[in-house]
Amino acid sequence: MSNGYLRYYKPSVLIGLLAFLGIAIYFAKDYLHLSVSIVSIISLILLAIDFWLWKTLLFSWMFWVDDFSGRYEGFLEYEYRDEYCNVKKGKLSHVKIIHQSGSKITIFSFTKYDDKKASSLSENIGMYVEKMNGEKHYQLTYTYLNNGNGDLKYPHHSGTDVIKFIRKGKEKQLSGRYYTERVPFSTRGKYLELNWVSNDQTHDF
Question: pLDDT tens, 42-67?
Answer without folding.
Answer: 999 999 999 999 999 999 999 999 99
